[in-house]
Structure formats: structure tokens, C-alpha cells
Amino acid sequence: MVNTTERDRRIFDIFDTAPVTTRQLVKLNVFPSYQTANRRLIRLKKRKRGRTPRVIGTVAMHDSGREAKVYCSHRVSKIEHEVFLSEELIDWPIPFTMWKRGRNTDGFLRPDAEIDGLSIEFDRGYETQKQLRKQVVRYRDYDGFVVWCVPSVKQIDWIRKDASDNTLYKLHGASVLFDGQGRELSVAKLCDRILEIYQHPMGWPTSLGES
Q1: What's this model's pTM, rounded to 2 decimal places?
Q2: What pLDDT shows up at residue 64?
Q3: In the chain, where do the E strands start and end?
Q4: Could you tell me the residue ranges of all domains in the chain?
Q5: Residue 158 contacts by C-beta under 8 Å, 6 or more apart in sequence?
């Protein structure tokens, strides 16, 4: 039997973390289906006491053009960007609510998402080479890893010109990433290492070759 109290708590933990759609709640294994998720959200909206879901906008996730409601506990300036970033991070084997997003990230680096020792820069292909370079150089003194999630190899070539050794590259939706020398590492393996050090901090590795 489903513990609705625990499930509702998890729903609002997710809403407190970042913008998501109903289907993304299903991908996060909060609900078994879209229909179940939609019914529960409608009930939560109608209740008189306690927290209620907050719709901050809509976004078209697919070519069909049909827009999905976006839920979040706080306002965000770029809803579409944030929802697609959520879509990317859902596939990472790091608990979704462990990610810092928005105002909770480092004030100087201003990554799109971060967990201690790992920053995520998410580009949907709208940034110019100059804009990307400006962000890349900020990471020159960063001790952890920065992963650039980009739509094509073109952006990787732009970033690589100014990137430091702690930079990794990943195409949207891919299960592997690469370092500056082209060495491959699975996203799952990187996340295992990050979570291990997160739980037992003994200094961050400076390259993919260190264990």
C-alpha cells in the first residue's frame, strides 16, 4: 500500500528543489503513471489545509507542441531551461533532491546545478561562443569536476579551448562523458565516485585517473 503522507512529502521536496512536470514526477518514480500523478496533484490543489502544488508556468517538452504544467515552490526566471535541466538530471544516479539549483548554488561560479565537488553547466545551444567562454574561465581555480552538458560536438570544441583539466563533456541524454583527452567515463561511475566522497570526504580527485 502506498504511504500517501511519505509520497506527498517527497513531492514537495522535489518542488522545493527545482521545476518539474507531472511526467517528470513519474520518471522520478514518485508515481507509477501519469494518470495517477495527475489525480493526486488535483486532490492536493483542492485541499484546505497543508501545502498545495504551485504551477509556475507551462513548457512544451516535445515536438507535438502540447504544453505541460510546471510545478515548483518558487519562481524561476527561465522555466524552459530549468525544466529541461531537470529532465537531464533525472537520468543521473544521484538523488534528485541532493542537487543544489538556482540561488542555492555557488554565488561566483553560478552553475546550473551542483553537489559538493561536481558542478553542472547545461547549455541548450542558445549560448554564443563568447558567452560560453566567459563561464568556462570561472572554473580555472575550481577544485571539483565541472560537467558541460551540451547538444552537439560544436559546443564541446568551443569550451575545450579555454577549459581546465577538471572539465568533462557530455551530450544531452548520453550515458557517458569524456575528459579533455577523449577518455570515456560512464555517468554512473562518476556519480558513484562523487557520492562516495560526498559521504566520506578525503579530498577531491583531480582527474579521471585517480581513485
Answers
A1: 0.90
A2: 65
A3: 20-21, 55-60, 67-71, 100-101, 113-115, 118-122, 145-150, 167-171, 176-178, 184-186
A4: 1-77, 91-211
A5: 129, 132, 133
